[in-house]
Amino acid sequence: MRLFILIFALLTVAGFSNAGEVKVLTYNIYRKPEPFGLGGRTHAKKRVKQLCLELKKTDYDVIMLQEAWLSKDRKYLSNCGYPFVMDITNVDYYRPGRAAANGREQNLETGLLILSKYPIIKKYRVSYGERGNWWTLFSDGETVVSKAVYAAQIAFPGDKKIWFFNTHLAANYCDYYPWMNCEPYEDVRAEQVKMIAKLVSNTDGPVVLGGDLNMGDKLSSRDRIWDQWQDYFPGFSQAPHDPKRSSTSSSTNMFKETDNGKIDHLFGSADLIKTKGNVVFDQLMNIEGLSLHLSDHYGWETTFSF
Questions:
Q1: pLDDT of amino acid 38
Q2: 169 vs 90, 160, 183, CA distance in Å?
Q3: Distance CA 263, CA 54 (A)
Q4: Are strands 207-212 and 264-268 parallel, antiparallel or unpaired?
Q5: The pTM is what?
Q6: CA 111 to centroid of chain Cα atoms
Q7: Mean pLDDT of all residues belonging to the chain
Q8: Which residue among 61, 66, 116, 186 has the highest number of C-beta atoms inside a 10 angstrom radius?
Q9: Is residue 131 over pLDDT 90?
Q10: Strand order in the sheet with 160-168
């Protein structure tokens, strides 16, 4: 296995034709547990299997996944063409997640995964101290999971190192503005963002920060912490895009009824150039004879240059 990884790494370095460019994908894969392990109406098992096939075709350097809630799915996705994987924790701050017990994620913990073509030389997980409300347990489940941020420093050819922060913030369970009779979780997201900002501020070198942030420019997903983003991450920016047309949580998706716009993001620090930001995996696919989207989100990709 070690020989395979070494050979793969050498071949990858040799094929690093666009020197200094790193292509990154963030994708919420919508893999919730379903009754009795069956596919249910979302055909989750079929979609995970197809996602693995699709990832094997891609040329991403780094992939940041969210909502890979089940350990068996993370294990499966860890063998989809990317030799370096972060699915463990070696640092826990604040409220430790269940991974603290045995050094690996459990079911319904963070749901996060980082896949890379290049070696992950440092890594840690930080669990959020803020979480959902017990009285909304059966309507949103935020208090059941252990949402967190994954931090991985990855070494690229030419002795270039970049930190990647992958996260999934508390969701906004309001489809329309003004928010009424729903739980927007603005305060929870604000505390989670503040914690990420503290971690990033103590990091040396370039940083890519992203994931499913559950907020964006569209009115139904915009909140005060989004408007204050630059205060917490000065100099960070995204690849140029039209926020009105670049929706990752779109009503054109078969699993969605409303459009919350672009809530999946990839920000880069000021020392990275951001280009080629695009929505991906937005097409229906023939998955084992069924016409399905891969997830209830579309993916978002960005190319960073250093």
A1: 54
A2: 21, 29, 14
A3: 22
A4: antiparallel
A5: 0.92
A6: 9
A7: 89
A8: 66
A9: no
A10: 120-127, 148-156, 160-168, 207-212, 264-268
Phi, psi of 45 (to 5 degrees): -60, -40
Q: Which helix (H) or strand (E) holds 89?
A: none
Residues 6+ apart with CB under 8 A from 240: 274, 275, 277
**In terms of Cα–Cα distance, which of 165, 92, 101, 99 is closest to 129?**
92
Amino acid at 158: G
Cα-flanking dihedrals φ and ψ of residue 267, to 5°?
A: -100, 145
Give the chain's end-to-end CA distance (angstroms, integer). 31
Please state whether the peptide bond connecting residue 83 to the residue before it is cis, i.e. omega within 30 degrees of 0: no
How far lies 186's CA from each of 73, 224, 227, 266, in Å? 30, 8, 12, 20
Q: Find tokens 């990154």 and name the residue.
A: 24
Radius of gyration of the chain (CA): 18
**Angle, alpha carbons 164-166-171 (nearest 5°):** 155
Contact 295, 47 (CB under 8 A): yes
Backbone angles phi, psi at 99, to 5 degrees: -65, -20
pLDDT in tens, 170-187: 999 998 888 888 899 999
Rounded to 5 degrees, φ, ψ at 201 are -65, -20
